[in-house]
Amino acid sequence: MEFLDDIKVGARTVLGRHTFTAAEIKAFARAYDPQPFHLDEAAAARSLFGGLCASGWHSVAMWMRLNIDHQQRADAARRARGEPVAELGLSPGFRELKWLKPVHAGDSITYASEVVAIRVSNSRPGWGLITFRNTGTNQSDELVLSFISTTFLQRRPER
Amino acid sequence: MEFLDDIKVGARTVLGRHTFTAAEIKAFARAYDPQPFHLDEAAAARSLFGGLCASGWHSVAMWMRLNIDHQQRADAARRARGEPVAELGLSPGFRELKWLKPVHAGDSITYASEVVAIRVSNSRPGWGLITFRNTGTNQSDELVLSFISTTFLQRRPER
């Protein structure tokens, strides 16, 4: 990550894109959300979703995967350029998670994050809190999920 | 599920308990949250968590698994007694998810749900919205996570 002091509210990052296959939708559902419309095409066709779709927990967990992959790639590039890398701290949680459209088998979801707030931590010197609005958008440009996350982020040591 | 009309605010259900093994913590992390403190004991020992711990997305996905298992067991018992079963509808989302303590390898988490609000839907006749406060508590009786969920639930047909 960049240091807290070098980030501006409004900055938006496309984290990556993922296509959800039927096989991985069913594998996640068997482990964490075994409802018929996440497990079986015929049952899903009869359900209010009209077809096999991913657990909402699966579609949001994939945001986390692409977020981590993106941060790790960006940090490796910073190190390769000889630049310092800011440490990300704990996330106290998230809020306002909305599942707005189903994610069906074959859908490609583009995940992004936009900085919506930055503040210096009063309790932890050298750290601040950064708040993102995170989204997933499908191949028809429809928003399928959004949520707000906050995480601790290191401040620039020399400032 | 019971029908919306038969549920009272304050009703609390223990959904079940799950012990997180190191192997499953790493398997979830490889797929959805590949950070060192979820993947590797030595790296985790050096991290601010002090030891291998589950992704927050893993600990909350397991709430969903135990919730579904509980509902399916309870519905099967209702059918065996010849009782009707209410249909659960879509969940528009979640709010106020808090990860309060790490879930370390070997921790046993008891998941529970408490009804905090019930209202009849104006837009969908025959349905209502039920809101739960969901929690996970470890073997030392410490709250490790909580969040608020809302979902559509069928009303009793004859009322």
Briefly, what is this?
The structure is a homodimer of 159-residue chains. Chain A has a single domain, classed as Thiol Ester Dehydrase, Chain A. Chain A has helices spanning 22-32, 36-39, 41-46, 56-80, and strands spanning 12-19, 93-99, 108-120, 127-137, 143-154.
Can you put this structure into words, describing what you see?
Two copies of one chain form a homodimer. Chain A is of the alpha+beta class and 159 residues long. Chain A has four helices and five strands; from the N terminus they run βααααββββ. Chain A has a single domain (4-154), classed as Roll (Thiol Ester Dehydrase, Chain A). Chain A has helices at residues 22-32, 36-39, 41-46, 56-80, and strands at 12-19, 93-99, 108-120, 127-137, 143-154. In chain A, strands 1-3-4-5-2 form a five-stranded antiparallel β-sheet, with helices on one face. The first copy, chain A, is elongated and about 60 Å long. The two termini of chain A are 17 Å apart.
